[in-house]
């Protein structure tokens, strides 16, 4: 079946995109308003986009009233944000933080979370998160009804128990977002298969091999 998005509604396009491009990691973004209110909200239009420099991207839509979300306003005003990763024990708090609280209400207090200081930026991270990435805004790209924020990672915070020799990360299992609006997955069902080189492939596929 072919589905031409031009023949369908915006809502259908959203449904198709968010149910087919899966799983998506979740950036649980802490940001700070000019008044010092710490805001927290999840975003699954999120990914790593470069390792040198270390760039990640988060795409934030306008809200139903067509206004910028608190996260977008705060990132634009402060030029920084923290991506906190969401593991299963934090699911309820993450879900609560997605509610449309007014800008002067900090989602952190309502979700019984705590802040911990960042080292390179002023915006705090979430103390309960197993991993957090301090980001400085690198660029902003308007994308229709969304704004794409690219941030440079200036500092990684990772729970000690997750970090093995040579910075190997063990047993880190953040949740993923599947279909919209509320389907998620665990990342605990894993397999590890080494990549093969062309030379290895030639050897394996040589006549008589
Ligand atoms: C798991 C999850 C992922 C989400 N992903 C996005 C996203 O990528 N972009 C977006 O604009 N909103 C996304 N939302 C909705 C925002 O979290 C929601 O609009 C939130 O209220 C925004 O908060 P703020 O106004 O404090 O920034 C997502 C919600 C959930 C629960």
Describe the overall structure.
By secondary structure, the chain is α+β, with helices and mostly antiparallel strands. Helices cover 19% and strands 33% of the residues. It is built from 5 helices and 12 strands. The strands form 3 sheets. It has a 7-stranded antiparallel beta sheet with strand order 3-2-6-9-10-5-4, with helices on both faces. Strands 1-11-12 form a 3-stranded antiparallel beta sheet, with no helix packed on it. It is globular. The protein starts with 9 loop residues before the first helix and ends with a helix. The model has no long low-confidence stretch (mean pLDDT 95).
Low-confidence stretches: none
The CATH class:
Mainly Beta
Biggest β-sheet: count, sense, barrel? Answer: 7 strands, antiparallel
**SS element count, helices:** 5
* Class derived from helix and strand content: alpha+beta
How does CATH name the architecture?
A: Roll
Task: Say which molecules are bound, naming each kind only once.
Answer: flavin mononucleotide
Shape: globular
Into which percent range does the helicity of residues fall? 10-25%
Mean pLDDT: 95
């Amino acid at each position: 079946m072919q589905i031409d998005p031009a023949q369908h509604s915006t809502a259908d396009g959203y449904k198709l995109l968010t149910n087919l491009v899966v799983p998506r990691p979740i950036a649980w973004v802490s940001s700070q308003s000019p008044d010092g209110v710490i805001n927290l909200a999840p975003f699954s239009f999120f990914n790593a986009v470069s390792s040198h420099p270390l760039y990640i991207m988060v795409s934030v839509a306008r809200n139903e009233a067509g206004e910028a979300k608190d996260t977008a306003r705060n990132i634009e005003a402060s030029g920084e944000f923290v991506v906190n990763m969401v593991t299963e024990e934090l699911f309820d708090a993450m879900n609560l933080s997605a509610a449309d609280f007014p800008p002067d209400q900090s989602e952190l207090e309502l979700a019984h979370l705590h802040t911990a200081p960042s080292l390179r930026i002023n915006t705090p991270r979430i103390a309960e998160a197993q991993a957090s990435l301090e980001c400085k805004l690198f660029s902003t790209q308007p994308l229709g009804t969304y704004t794409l924020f690219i941030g440079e990672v200036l500092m990684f915070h990772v729970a000690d128990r997750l970090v093995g020799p040579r910075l190997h990360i063990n047993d880190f299992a953040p949740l993923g977002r599947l279909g919209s609006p509320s389907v998620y997955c665990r990342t605990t069902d894993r397999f590890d298969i080494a990549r093969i080189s062309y030379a290895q492939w030639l050897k394996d596929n040589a006549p008589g091999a």
